[in-house]
Amino acid sequence: MPSDSPSQPSDGPPADSAARLIERPELLPPPAPPPAPPPRPLAVFLPFLRLGLTSFGGPAMVAYIRNLAVKKKQWLGGDSFSDGVALCQAIPGATAMQSAAYVGLKARGFSGAAAAYIGFGLPAFLFMLVLSVLYKYGQEAPLILSLFSGLRAIVVALMANAVLSFGTTTIKNWWGLPVVAGAAVALFFGINPIYVIFAAAAVGLALPLKAGVASKPGAEHEPPSKHRSFLRPVLLLLAVAAVVMAILYVFRPQLFHLALTMLRVDLFAFGGGFASIPLMQHEVVDVHHWVEAPAFIDGIALGQVTPGPIVITATFVGYMFAGLAGAVVATVAIFLPSFTVLVLVEPYFDRFKRNRYFRKAIAGILLSFVGLLLAVTVRLGINISWEIWSILLAVAAFVALRLKVDVLWVVVVGGVVSVIIGLL
What we know:
The structure is a single chain. 72% of the residues lie in helices and 0% in strands. The protein is mainly alpha-helical. It has one domain (41-138, 150-214, 229-423). Helix 11 (253-267) crosses helix 14 (313-345). The longest helix is centred in the C-terminal third of the chain and has 33 residues, at 313-345. The termini are far apart. Residues 1-7, 9-13 and 211-226 have low confidence and may be disordered.
Protein backbone atom coordinates (compact mmCIF):
# COMPACT_ATOMS: atom_id res chain seq x y z
CA MET A 1 0.00 0.00 0.00
CA PRO A 2 1.45 3.36 -0.90
CA SER A 3 2.19 5.70 1.98
CA ASP A 4 0.04 8.81 2.46
CA SER A 5 2.85 10.72 4.15
CA PRO A 6 4.64 13.28 2.02
CA SER A 7 8.10 12.37 0.90
CA GLN A 8 10.95 14.05 2.76
CA PRO A 9 13.39 16.08 0.69
CA SER A 10 16.83 14.60 0.44
CA ASP A 11 19.77 16.52 1.92
CA GLY A 12 22.31 15.13 -0.56
CA PRO A 13 22.38 14.78 -4.33
CA PRO A 14 20.15 12.17 -6.00
CA ALA A 15 21.53 8.65 -6.02
CA ASP A 16 22.19 8.69 -9.75
CA SER A 17 24.02 12.04 -9.49
CA ALA A 18 26.16 10.70 -6.66
CA ALA A 19 26.96 7.63 -8.70
CA ARG A 20 28.01 9.73 -11.67
CA LEU A 21 30.33 11.79 -9.42
CA ILE A 22 31.91 8.59 -8.11
CA GLU A 23 32.39 7.19 -11.60
CA ARG A 24 33.66 10.53 -13.01
CA PRO A 25 35.59 12.38 -10.31
CA GLU A 26 36.50 15.11 -12.80
CA LEU A 27 32.95 16.40 -12.29
CA LEU A 28 33.77 17.22 -8.68
CA PRO A 29 34.50 20.90 -7.97
CA PRO A 30 38.19 21.62 -7.59
CA PRO A 31 39.40 21.77 -4.00
CA ALA A 32 40.02 25.19 -2.49
CA PRO A 33 43.66 26.21 -2.84
CA PRO A 34 45.62 26.22 0.42
CA PRO A 35 46.25 29.67 1.91
CA ALA A 36 49.38 31.30 0.58
CA PRO A 37 52.28 31.32 3.05
CA PRO A 38 53.21 34.74 4.42
CA PRO A 39 55.83 36.52 2.32
CA ARG A 40 59.40 36.61 3.54
CA PRO A 41 60.62 39.96 4.92
CA LEU A 42 62.80 40.47 1.83
CA ALA A 43 59.73 39.94 -0.39
CA VAL A 44 58.05 42.76 1.53
CA PHE A 45 61.12 45.00 1.63
CA LEU A 46 61.88 45.06 -2.11
CA PRO A 47 58.42 46.15 -3.42
CA PHE A 48 58.28 48.92 -0.84
CA LEU A 49 61.84 49.97 -1.67
CA ARG A 50 60.81 50.35 -5.33
CA LEU A 51 57.69 52.23 -4.27
CA GLY A 52 59.73 54.45 -1.95
CA LEU A 53 61.96 55.51 -4.85
CA THR A 54 58.97 57.19 -6.51
CA SER A 55 56.89 58.10 -3.44
CA PHE A 56 56.47 61.79 -4.22
CA GLY A 57 53.32 63.41 -2.94
CA GLY A 58 53.19 62.34 0.71
CA PRO A 59 49.68 61.16 1.65
CA ALA A 60 48.82 60.68 -2.04
CA MET A 61 51.09 57.64 -1.93
CA VAL A 62 48.49 55.80 0.14
CA ALA A 63 46.64 55.00 -3.10
CA TYR A 64 49.78 53.44 -4.57
CA ILE A 65 50.36 51.42 -1.40
CA ARG A 66 46.81 50.14 -1.64
CA ASN A 67 47.31 49.12 -5.26
CA LEU A 68 50.49 47.23 -4.33
CA ALA A 69 49.12 45.51 -1.24
CA VAL A 70 45.52 44.78 -2.24
CA LYS A 71 45.59 44.30 -6.01
CA LYS A 72 49.10 43.23 -6.97
CA LYS A 73 50.29 41.24 -3.96
CA GLN A 74 46.89 40.49 -2.37
CA TRP A 75 48.44 40.60 1.09
CA LEU A 76 45.20 41.92 2.57
CA GLY A 77 41.69 42.89 1.53
CA GLY A 78 40.39 46.32 0.66
CA ASP A 79 38.33 46.67 3.86
CA SER A 80 41.31 45.70 5.98
CA PHE A 81 43.46 48.28 4.22
CA SER A 82 40.82 50.98 4.78
CA ASP A 83 40.74 50.11 8.47
CA GLY A 84 44.52 50.42 8.49
CA VAL A 85 44.42 53.90 6.96
CA ALA A 86 41.89 54.96 9.60
CA LEU A 87 44.26 53.66 12.26
CA CYS A 88 47.22 55.52 10.74
CA GLN A 89 45.26 58.77 10.72
CA ALA A 90 44.31 58.38 14.40
CA ILE A 91 47.84 57.84 15.75
CA PRO A 92 51.05 59.90 15.45
CA GLY A 93 53.23 59.73 12.37
CA ALA A 94 53.23 60.23 8.62
CA THR A 95 50.20 58.50 7.11
CA ALA A 96 51.99 57.02 4.09
CA MET A 97 54.83 55.58 6.18
CA GLN A 98 52.39 54.18 8.70
CA SER A 99 50.27 52.64 5.94
CA ALA A 100 53.33 50.84 4.59
CA ALA A 101 54.11 49.46 8.03
CA TYR A 102 50.50 48.38 8.49
CA VAL A 103 50.57 46.40 5.25
CA GLY A 104 53.79 44.69 6.29
CA LEU A 105 52.31 43.94 9.71
CA LYS A 106 49.26 42.25 8.20
CA ALA A 107 51.33 40.38 5.63
CA ARG A 108 54.20 39.09 7.76
CA GLY A 109 53.86 40.33 11.33
CA PHE A 110 56.46 42.44 13.08
CA SER A 111 59.31 41.59 10.70
CA GLY A 112 57.10 42.45 7.73
CA ALA A 113 56.16 45.79 9.28
CA ALA A 114 59.83 46.64 9.82
CA ALA A 115 60.73 45.55 6.28
CA ALA A 116 57.97 47.66 4.69
CA TYR A 117 58.73 50.67 6.90
CA ILE A 118 62.46 50.64 6.22
CA GLY A 119 62.07 49.88 2.52
CA PHE A 120 59.59 52.69 2.00
CA GLY A 121 61.56 55.27 3.97
CA LEU A 122 65.15 54.42 2.98
CA PRO A 123 65.14 56.21 -0.42
CA ALA A 124 63.85 59.41 1.18
CA PHE A 125 66.65 59.31 3.75
CA LEU A 126 69.36 58.76 1.13
CA PHE A 127 68.03 61.48 -1.19
CA MET A 128 67.74 63.98 1.65
CA LEU A 129 71.20 63.14 2.95
CA VAL A 130 72.76 63.87 -0.45
CA LEU A 131 70.81 67.12 -0.80
CA SER A 132 71.79 68.16 2.71
CA VAL A 133 75.49 67.71 1.91
CA LEU A 134 75.12 69.73 -1.29
CA TYR A 135 73.20 72.42 0.56
CA LYS A 136 75.73 72.74 3.38
CA TYR A 137 78.71 73.20 1.08
CA GLY A 138 77.06 75.08 -1.78
CA GLN A 139 74.49 77.36 -0.20
CA GLU A 140 76.59 80.52 -0.63
CA ALA A 141 76.74 80.26 -4.43
CA PRO A 142 74.65 83.03 -6.07
CA LEU A 143 72.45 80.66 -8.04
CA ILE A 144 71.82 78.55 -4.96
CA LEU A 145 70.85 81.66 -3.02
CA SER A 146 68.42 82.62 -5.76
CA LEU A 147 67.05 79.07 -5.93
CA PHE A 148 66.25 78.94 -2.23
CA SER A 149 64.83 82.45 -2.21
CA GLY A 150 62.14 81.14 -4.54
CA LEU A 151 61.76 77.81 -2.76
CA ARG A 152 61.17 79.54 0.58
CA ALA A 153 58.26 81.44 -0.96
CA ILE A 154 56.90 78.16 -2.32
CA VAL A 155 57.18 76.56 1.12
CA VAL A 156 54.97 79.29 2.57
CA ALA A 157 52.43 78.59 -0.19
CA LEU A 158 52.72 74.87 0.56
CA MET A 159 52.06 75.42 4.25
CA ALA A 160 49.14 77.74 3.51
CA ASN A 161 47.62 75.09 1.27
CA ALA A 162 48.09 72.51 4.03
CA VAL A 163 46.30 74.79 6.51
CA LEU A 164 43.36 75.21 4.14
CA SER A 165 43.16 71.53 3.21
CA PHE A 166 43.59 70.31 6.78
CA GLY A 167 41.16 72.89 8.08
CA THR A 168 38.33 72.10 5.66
CA THR A 169 38.46 68.40 6.58
CA THR A 170 38.91 68.94 10.33
CA ILE A 171 36.70 71.90 11.30
CA LYS A 172 33.21 70.44 11.26
CA ASN A 173 31.33 73.04 13.35
CA TRP A 174 31.74 76.62 14.49
CA TRP A 175 32.98 75.59 17.94
CA GLY A 176 36.10 74.19 16.35
CA LEU A 177 37.18 77.70 15.35
CA PRO A 178 38.05 78.89 18.89
CA VAL A 179 40.24 75.80 19.36
CA VAL A 180 42.05 76.54 16.10
CA ALA A 181 42.47 80.23 16.96
CA GLY A 182 43.64 79.47 20.50
CA ALA A 183 46.27 77.00 19.28
CA ALA A 184 47.54 79.47 16.68
CA VAL A 185 47.83 82.33 19.18
CA ALA A 186 49.50 80.11 21.78
CA LEU A 187 52.22 78.90 19.40
CA PHE A 188 52.70 82.33 17.86
CA PHE A 189 53.55 83.69 21.32
CA GLY A 190 55.96 80.90 22.14
CA ILE A 191 53.91 78.44 24.21
CA ASN A 192 55.21 74.90 23.87
CA PRO A 193 53.03 73.13 21.26
CA ILE A 194 52.94 69.95 23.34
CA TYR A 195 51.08 71.88 26.06
CA VAL A 196 48.76 73.17 23.35
CA ILE A 197 48.06 69.60 22.21
CA PHE A 198 47.23 68.42 25.73
CA ALA A 199 44.94 71.40 26.25
CA ALA A 200 43.20 70.74 22.92
CA ALA A 201 42.64 67.09 23.86
CA ALA A 202 41.02 68.23 27.11
CA VAL A 203 38.82 70.70 25.23
CA GLY A 204 37.92 67.96 22.76
CA LEU A 205 36.52 65.86 25.58
CA ALA A 206 34.01 68.64 26.26
CA LEU A 207 33.00 69.12 22.62
CA PRO A 208 30.00 67.40 21.05
CA LEU A 209 31.01 64.24 19.20
CA LYS A 210 29.95 65.70 15.84
CA ALA A 211 32.98 67.94 16.05
CA GLY A 212 35.19 64.92 16.28
CA VAL A 213 36.16 61.81 14.43
CA ALA A 214 33.14 60.26 12.83
CA SER A 215 32.27 56.68 13.62
CA LYS A 216 30.43 54.22 11.47
CA PRO A 217 26.80 53.46 12.29
CA GLY A 218 26.69 50.69 14.83
CA ALA A 219 30.39 50.98 15.60
CA GLU A 220 29.63 51.27 19.31
CA HIS A 221 28.22 47.73 19.24
CA GLU A 222 30.71 45.99 16.95
CA PRO A 223 32.36 43.00 18.58
CA PRO A 224 36.10 43.45 18.99
CA SER A 225 38.13 41.50 16.49
CA LYS A 226 40.85 39.13 17.60
CA HIS A 227 44.38 39.95 16.59
CA ARG A 228 47.82 38.74 17.37
CA SER A 229 49.79 40.83 19.84
CA PHE A 230 53.35 41.92 19.01
CA LEU A 231 54.33 42.90 22.54
CA ARG A 232 57.49 40.78 22.72
CA PRO A 233 59.28 42.17 19.63
CA VAL A 234 58.20 45.69 20.58
CA LEU A 235 59.71 45.30 24.04
CA LEU A 236 62.93 44.04 22.45
CA LEU A 237 62.96 47.04 20.09
CA LEU A 238 62.41 49.44 22.99
CA ALA A 239 65.16 47.76 25.00
CA VAL A 240 67.62 48.22 22.12
CA ALA A 241 66.54 51.86 21.75
CA ALA A 242 67.03 52.44 25.49
CA VAL A 243 70.55 51.00 25.34
CA VAL A 244 71.44 53.20 22.35
CA MET A 245 70.03 56.28 24.10
CA ALA A 246 72.10 55.46 27.21
CA ILE A 247 75.26 55.17 25.10
CA LEU A 248 74.52 58.49 23.40
CA TYR A 249 73.88 60.14 26.75
CA VAL A 250 77.29 59.08 28.03
CA PHE A 251 79.45 59.50 24.92
CA ARG A 252 77.57 61.92 22.60
CA PRO A 253 75.25 64.15 24.67
CA GLN A 254 74.39 66.38 21.71
CA LEU A 255 73.15 63.37 19.75
CA PHE A 256 71.19 62.22 22.80
CA HIS A 257 69.35 65.55 22.97
CA LEU A 258 68.79 65.48 19.21
CA ALA A 259 67.30 61.99 19.42
CA LEU A 260 65.15 62.89 22.43
CA THR A 261 63.80 65.94 20.63
CA MET A 262 62.88 64.02 17.47
CA LEU A 263 61.31 61.22 19.52
CA ARG A 264 59.12 63.81 21.22
CA VAL A 265 58.19 65.49 17.93
CA ASP A 266 57.08 62.22 16.35
CA LEU A 267 55.21 61.02 19.41
CA PHE A 268 52.92 64.06 19.38
CA ALA A 269 52.54 64.56 15.61
CA PHE A 270 48.92 63.50 15.20
CA GLY A 271 47.23 64.11 11.87
CA GLY A 272 49.98 63.19 9.40
CA GLY A 273 53.44 64.38 8.45
CA PHE A 274 52.58 68.08 8.25
CA ALA A 275 51.60 67.99 11.92
CA SER A 276 55.26 67.47 12.80
CA ILE A 277 56.34 70.79 11.28
CA PRO A 278 55.07 73.09 14.09
CA LEU A 279 56.60 70.82 16.71
CA MET A 280 59.92 70.49 14.90
CA GLN A 281 60.13 74.19 14.12
CA HIS A 282 59.53 75.07 17.77
CA GLU A 283 62.17 72.64 19.03
CA VAL A 284 65.01 73.01 16.53
CA VAL A 285 64.64 76.73 15.72
CA ASP A 286 63.09 78.43 18.73
CA VAL A 287 64.30 76.31 21.66
CA HIS A 288 67.61 74.68 20.70
CA HIS A 289 68.67 77.01 17.84
CA TRP A 290 70.22 74.10 15.92
CA VAL A 291 69.29 75.72 12.61
CA GLU A 292 68.16 79.21 11.67
CA ALA A 293 64.59 79.77 10.49
CA PRO A 294 65.55 80.32 6.80
CA ALA A 295 67.58 77.10 6.79
CA PHE A 296 64.65 75.23 8.32
CA ILE A 297 62.43 76.49 5.52
CA ASP A 298 65.06 75.28 3.04
CA GLY A 299 64.95 71.86 4.69
CA ILE A 300 61.19 71.70 4.17
CA ALA A 301 61.69 72.66 0.52
CA LEU A 302 64.28 69.92 0.03
CA GLY A 303 61.85 67.49 1.63
CA GLN A 304 59.39 68.25 -1.15
CA VAL A 305 61.80 67.32 -3.94
CA THR A 306 62.68 64.00 -2.33
CA PRO A 307 60.41 60.97 -2.14
CA GLY A 308 58.83 60.19 1.19
CA PRO A 309 57.02 62.17 3.91
CA ILE A 310 57.74 65.75 4.89
CA VAL A 311 59.10 64.61 8.27
CA ILE A 312 62.25 63.61 6.39
CA THR A 313 63.19 67.22 7.10
CA ALA A 314 64.56 65.71 10.32
CA THR A 315 67.41 64.23 8.28
CA PHE A 316 68.32 67.71 7.07
CA VAL A 317 68.18 69.15 10.59
CA GLY A 318 70.30 66.31 11.97
CA TYR A 319 72.95 66.71 9.28
CA MET A 320 73.15 70.49 9.65
CA PHE A 321 73.52 70.07 13.42
CA ALA A 322 75.84 67.07 13.76
CA GLY A 323 76.84 65.75 10.34
CA LEU A 324 76.22 62.18 9.19
CA ALA A 325 75.75 60.81 12.70
CA GLY A 326 73.18 63.52 13.38
CA ALA A 327 71.32 62.71 10.18
CA VAL A 328 71.10 59.01 11.08
CA VAL A 329 70.08 59.63 14.69
CA ALA A 330 67.46 62.24 13.79
CA THR A 331 65.96 60.03 11.07
CA VAL A 332 65.66 56.95 13.27
CA ALA A 333 64.24 58.99 16.13
CA ILE A 334 61.63 60.75 13.98
CA PHE A 335 60.21 57.42 12.78
CA LEU A 336 60.63 55.07 15.75
CA PRO A 337 57.79 56.22 18.07
CA SER A 338 55.05 56.19 15.44
CA PHE A 339 56.16 52.75 14.22
CA THR A 340 56.09 51.42 17.77
CA VAL A 341 52.67 52.91 18.46
CA LEU A 342 51.26 51.37 15.27
CA VAL A 343 52.48 47.88 16.11
CA LEU A 344 51.27 48.14 19.70
CA VAL A 345 47.86 49.66 18.98
CA GLU A 346 46.84 47.73 15.84
CA PRO A 347 45.64 44.60 17.67
CA TYR A 348 43.39 46.72 19.89
CA PHE A 349 42.33 49.47 17.51
CA ASP A 350 38.76 48.19 17.31
CA ARG A 351 38.38 49.03 20.99
CA PHE A 352 39.95 52.46 20.61
CA LYS A 353 37.89 53.53 17.62
CA ARG A 354 34.64 52.59 19.44
CA ASN A 355 35.64 54.60 22.51
CA ARG A 356 33.75 57.88 22.60
CA TYR A 357 36.35 59.71 24.67
CA PHE A 358 39.22 58.61 22.43
CA ARG A 359 37.45 59.97 19.36
CA LYS A 360 36.67 63.28 21.07
CA ALA A 361 40.24 63.76 22.31
CA ILE A 362 41.60 63.05 18.83
CA ALA A 363 39.12 65.60 17.43
CA GLY A 364 40.47 68.29 19.73
CA ILE A 365 44.08 67.40 18.88
CA LEU A 366 43.42 67.58 15.14
CA LEU A 367 41.76 70.97 15.55
CA SER A 368 44.79 72.25 17.41
CA PHE A 369 47.06 71.19 14.57
CA VAL A 370 45.15 73.41 12.16
CA GLY A 371 45.98 76.35 14.42
CA LEU A 372 49.59 75.24 14.88
CA LEU A 373 50.07 74.96 11.13
CA LEU A 374 48.54 78.40 10.68
CA ALA A 375 50.91 79.93 13.23
CA VAL A 376 53.94 78.24 11.65
CA THR A 377 52.90 79.47 8.20
CA VAL A 378 52.75 83.05 9.47
CA ARG A 379 56.08 82.75 11.28
CA LEU A 380 57.81 81.21 8.26
CA GLY A 381 56.46 84.02 6.12
CA ILE A 382 57.86 86.61 8.52
CA ASN A 383 61.33 85.07 8.21
CA ILE A 384 61.46 85.56 4.42
CA SER A 385 62.79 88.62 2.65
CA TRP A 386 59.94 89.17 0.22
CA GLU A 387 60.31 90.74 -3.21
CA ILE A 388 57.73 91.31 -5.92
CA TRP A 389 58.81 88.25 -7.89
CA SER A 390 58.80 85.96 -4.82
CA ILE A 391 55.32 87.18 -3.83
CA LEU A 392 54.03 86.38 -7.32
CA LEU A 393 55.76 83.01 -7.20
CA ALA A 394 54.13 82.17 -3.87
CA VAL A 395 50.69 83.17 -5.16
CA ALA A 396 51.15 81.11 -8.33
CA ALA A 397 52.32 78.12 -6.31
CA PHE A 398 49.31 78.37 -3.98
CA VAL A 399 46.89 78.52 -6.90
CA ALA A 400 48.58 75.54 -8.56
CA LEU A 401 48.35 73.50 -5.35
CA ARG A 402 44.65 74.36 -4.98
CA LEU A 403 44.17 73.16 -8.56
CA LYS A 404 45.68 69.80 -7.49
CA VAL A 405 48.93 70.18 -9.41
CA ASP A 406 51.44 67.69 -8.02
CA VAL A 407 53.62 69.32 -5.38
CA LEU A 408 56.78 67.96 -6.99
CA TRP A 409 56.06 69.86 -10.21
CA VAL A 410 55.22 73.01 -8.26
CA VAL A 411 58.56 72.87 -6.46
CA VAL A 412 60.59 71.94 -9.55
CA VAL A 413 59.04 74.60 -11.79
CA GLY A 414 59.30 77.18 -9.02
CA GLY A 415 62.97 76.30 -8.55
CA VAL A 416 63.68 76.70 -12.28
CA VAL A 417 61.93 80.08 -12.29
CA SER A 418 63.99 81.16 -9.27
CA VAL A 419 67.25 80.20 -11.00
CA ILE A 420 66.27 82.05 -14.17
CA ILE A 421 65.49 85.18 -12.16
CA GLY A 422 68.86 84.85 -10.47
CA LEU A 423 70.57 84.81 -13.86
CA LEU A 424 68.85 87.99 -15.03
